[in-house]
Design brief:
Layout: E1 6-11, H1 14-22, E2 31-34, E3 44-47, H2 49-52, H3 62-68, E4 73-76, H4 79-94, E5 100-104, E6 107-111, H5 119-134, E7 138-143, H6 146-155, E8 161-163, H7 169-173, H8 186-194, H9 200-204, H10 212-215, H11 218-226, E9 243-253, H12 256-277, E10 279-290, E11 295-306, H13 309-325, E12 331-343, E13 368-369
Parallel strand pairs: 2-4, 7-8, 9-13
Antiparallel strand pairs: 1-6, 1-7, 2-3, 5-6, 9-12, 10-11, 10-12
Helix pairs in contact: 4-5, 12-13
The structure holds magnesium ion.
């Protein structure tokens, strides 16, 4: 028996690694995979480690990536190939347990249960299978809960294996910056830094009630996570009613161009999540919260359902501009959501047939938000 029952497995620079695997001439070169190379829009979906050395990272506008490294090889997103690799990746994971929660095409949590004697050996077997069968590398974290497993997999990339037994959790967590915790966006990070809280260890020592004025009801949960306590279960299958991405800005935003960039980045992330789940969306919703906390949402429902970032971004931008143009005030939060989800292979079927029409509010209580 082992307490180390949770694994987080993350393929390294997934899209870019698939391209380098299939096109040997790209190995060792900076490779950037991005949505739409023909227009000036679009964001980086994945960057090889060689490209990351030039400061390129996912969700960065492609124009910026080009400026940082003009010599990089820029490739369009090839979802059919990534989906096939993802399918085989999940097959490898499900040989070990059926309790696999997919986070995206290239990332999943496993709960091995309490009976597995040697979880690190399972992690090594998974890494070996991924190398032998997919010619890709994965970074794996092994720990007692999701938080520690996820931070462990990120600790040593690429091709890492990090095991964090509970008695070492404090030493592992304390020195890490607070933004490594899930749920800490730019606004929460700025709020905590103003109070001298920079590291997870700083946050772990705080009485959460002190942080209520700035963090509200999340204060308790964040301090608990900082202390390495995470009760979230690995949920093997979680059908999504809706998906959304949102962010609160550290400083209120006036610049329309940056708002549009934000929607484009969310569109790219939603595309990945929709593709990973085999879904398309009929409804796109934008949420805008102004500096005075007034919140508006604007939705658009139309057939056929869509899943590509470019399509999501076009609709999202129209909705965004409609939501903000009525109002010159600065914006503190922007969200992009999709609902009215249909199966990619059977687009005539709503995933949740009882939610007709707009298909539910992607920012509502039953949504899966990040
Ligand atoms: Mg990855």
């Amino acid at each position: 028996m082992s307490e180390l029952r949770i694994l987080h497995v993350d393929l390294d620079a997934f899209f870019a690694s698939v391209e380098q695997r299939d096109r040997p001439e790209l190995r060792g070169r900076p490779v950037v995979v991005g949505g739409d190379l023909t227009s000036r829009r679009g964001v980086v979906a994945a960057a090889s480690y060689e490209a990351r050395r030039h400061g390129i990272h996912s969700a960065m506008p492609l124009t910026r990536a080009r400026r940082l490294c003009p010599a990089a090889v820029f490739l369009p997103v090839d979802f059919p190939r990534y989906r096939e690799a993802s399918r085989r990746f999940l097959e490898i994971l499900r040989r070990e347990t059926q309790v696999v929660e997919t986070v995206s095409l290239d990332e999943a949590f496993l709960d091995l249960g309490a009976q597995v004697a040697d979880p690190p050996a399972v992690a090594r077997r998974i890494k070996r299978s991924i190398a032998q069968e997919l010619s890709l590398t994965a970074s794996v974290g092994v720990a007692a809960n999701k938080l520690l497993a996820k931070l462990a997999s990120e600790h040593d990339k690429p091709d890492g294996l990090t095991i964090v037994p509970s008695e070492q959790a404090r030493d592992f967590l304390d020195p890490q910056p607070i933004r490594h915790l899930p749920g800490i966006g730019p606004a929460a990070e700025a709020y905590l830094k103003d109070r001298g809280i920079f590291r997870i260890g700083d946050l772990a020592r705080i009485d959460p009630s002190v942080l209520r004025p700035g963090l509200g009801s999340r204060a308790e949960e964040l301090v608990r996570l900082a202390r390495g306590i995470d009760g979230r279960r690995v949920i093997p299958f979680q059908p999504a009613r809706s998906l959304s991405e949102e962010t609160t800005f550290a400083a209120d935003l006036h610049d329309r161009g940056r708002m549009v960039e934000c929607v484009q980045a969310f569109a790219a992330q939603l595309e990945q999540r929709l593709v990973a789940a085999g879904l398309k969306a009929r409804t796109v919703t934008v949420k805008v919260r102004f500096a005075d906390f007034r919140t508006v949402t604007r939705s658009f429902t139309r057939d056929p359902a869509i899943a590509f970032a470019r399509q999501l971004a076009v609709r999202g931008e129209q909705l965004l501009l409609a939501a903000v143009s009525a109002d010159g005030r600065p914006v503190r939060l922007i969200g992009l959501g999709v609902s009215g989800l249909v199966s990619r292979d059977h687009p005539e079927q709503l995933v949740f047939p009882f939610e007709v029409g707009a298909g539910g509010d992607p920012f509502g209580p039953r949504s899966i938000r990040r």
